[in-house]
Amino acid sequence: MTKRVAILISGGGSNMVSLVEDMTGDHPARPVLVLSNRADAGGLDKAKARGIPTAVVDHRPFGSDRPAFEDALTHVLEQAHPDIICLAGFMRVLTEGFVTRWQGRMLNIHPSLLPKYKGLHTHQRAIDAGDTEAGCSVHEVTAELDGGRVLGQARVPIVPGDTADDLAARVLVQEHVLYPLVLRRFAEGQRDRIDLP
Length: 197
Known about the structure:
Order of helices and strands: EHEHEHEHEHEEHE
Pfam families: Formyl_trans_N (PF00551)
Oligomer: single chain
CATH architecture: 3-Layer(aba) Sandwich
Strand order of the largest sheet: 3-2-1-4-5-6-7-8
Helix content: 25-40%
Structural class: alpha/beta
Catalytic activity: N(1)-(5-phospho-beta-D-ribosyl)glycinamide + (6R)-10-formyltetrahydrofolate = N(2)-formyl-N(1)-(5-phospho-beta-D-ribosyl)glycinamide + (6S)-5,6,7,8-tetrahydrofolate + H(+)
CATH superfamily: Formyl transferase, N-terminal domain
Radius of gyration: 16 Å
Family: Belongs to the GART family.
Domain Formyl transferase N-terminal: 3-183
Shape: globular
Number of domains: 1
Pathway: Purine metabolism; IMP biosynthesis via de novo pathway; N(2)-formyl-N(1)-(5-phospho-D-ribosyl)glycinamide from N(1)-(5-phospho-D-ribosyl)glycinamide (10-formyl THF route): step 1/1
CATH class: Alpha Beta
């Protein structure tokens, strides 16, 4: 049975596009919703142009009441009946209650070689630490921030003189390769880890 995928975004949606463009033909999944917490997220227009239903749940009216915001998110998601939820640049930290509701069905892509550099500013932190490589990880979402089981990683070298933006651009290329690959395997029921060179 084809899996139904909802994709959560906050910005331009480049990872969302890479996921959607892979979900064609005999792919075991198909996109049923692109949901954003920002009405001005550029990825919404990209999803609409591809015929994918979109929705917005603005976090700002909820202030610091994250459970209320997540209740609204859940209401919209449940109408789409997703089997899998992909976080693709969704810039809100989710509470344990929300994560538990969708446990085992949520994936996220993070721009570091987890468990290194959870959270923000990953590229600058890798450069500042003197690392020789960086990369990205796709992991299952748990209540621990960026702490779920890693299902795939891709690596890129850190070149002398790199800025955080330089490194981010090279890592993003690999994100667009890794995330669709892991999603395809996840939708087929494969949970073993894959590492790209």
